Amino acid sequence: MDDATDLRNEIRKDYRTGRFVIIAPDRDRRPEDFFQSEKEPKIGIKCPFDPGNESMTTEIMRIGNPWKIRVVENRYPEFSPDIPLEEGSGKLEYISGYGYNEVLIDTPIHNLAFDKLKNEDMRLWLDALIEREADLYTKNYIKYVQIFKNSGPEAGESMVHPHTQIMAWSEIIGSIKDEIDRIKDYKDRYNKCLYEDLGELEENRILLETDRMIAVAPYASRFAGESMIVPKRHVSYLQDLTVEEKDDFVNTLKMILKVNRNLFGDLSYNLCFHDIKSEPDFHLHLEIYPRLSIPAGVEFGQDVFVNQLPPEVYTETFAQKLKEVT
Ligand SMILES: [Zn+2]
Ligand SMILES: [Zn+2]
Predict the structure, then answer these.
(1) What percent of the chain has pLDDT over 70?
(2) How far apart are the C-alpha atoms of 146 and 274, rounded to whole Å?
(3) Among 61, 214, 258, 302, which residue's Cβ finds the most Cβ atoms within 10 Å?
(4) For residue range 234-268, what is the model confidence (pLDDT) as tens digits?
(5) In this predicted model, what pLDDT tens digit does every residue of 150-192 receive, in sequence order?
(6) Residues 179 and 284 in one domain
(7) Where does a domain end: 149, 169, 189?
(8) Same domain, 183 and 273
(9) Are residues 34 and 180 both part of a single domain?
(10) How far apart are the CA of 236 and the centre of ligand 2, in A?
(11) In terms of residue numbers, what domain contains 222?
């Protein structure tokens, strides 16, 4: 870890979003010290996502008989199609909570961690997400479909049973808006897609590379052990991935999760897809945020994250662990 001691503390600007991050290497803490011990399984609660309890949820689709994947309505939705779409643009602005929230049950097996799914089952998971995303984009007034996973208590998981959430928004705001704007700025300035320069921008932080995918530890990672999977070809929307790209994507994701478990133990993490149908300039990617520390005053008060594991150190450690697990 000699390189780690060469790294100085610095404020980095994220080329993807314009957000700032403080990289503050903790010299007393090696990557292995972020290790999380096995979590106690919760028992005794009737799980609405288990086979036999299907009547507890409203089903939208399923794959397999008996089912391997189900998509159901979120029982505690932030958005609903029953709320009339309206906006307030006075001194206090708002958009009504029109939209959709769905939950994809990743597996019938209650205690099977998502990263332990077989590659072929993870492929079904991806196919189901793509199918639901495409359908939600056909609904009235839907401009953005967000797909994410909260895995583990520190990642905001509400149910232990592995699941993925799909939210359909009537407006393009937040991170996806910032990223669209920056991709457009980059194109105006350099006449190419920002992600075509990824190999150069992330030269020292490449985790994995396949024929069709590249995975990096982003320059301005907000989280210790953060990574991002990006198709090499310009693709803005999940449905446009080819069969080979989908296979490669799943293999890459599996490998990152496997190395992360080896390195960080029973970690909590979020997966966030960034892709959008209506912006051909956008470049699809998946962001993976291990949740190994608790955001506090700097994060909430200043909207700047402090990362104690520089992405360069994570990259080095990842390479060592990759050799061990393959
Ligand atoms: Zn369950
Ligand atoms: Zn691109």
Answers:
(1) 97
(2) 7
(3) 214
(4) 999 999 999 999 999 999 999 999 999 999 999 99
(5) 999 999 988 899 999 999 999 999 999 999 999 999 999 999 9
(6) yes
(7) 169
(8) yes
(9) yes
(10) 7
(11) 2-39+173-325
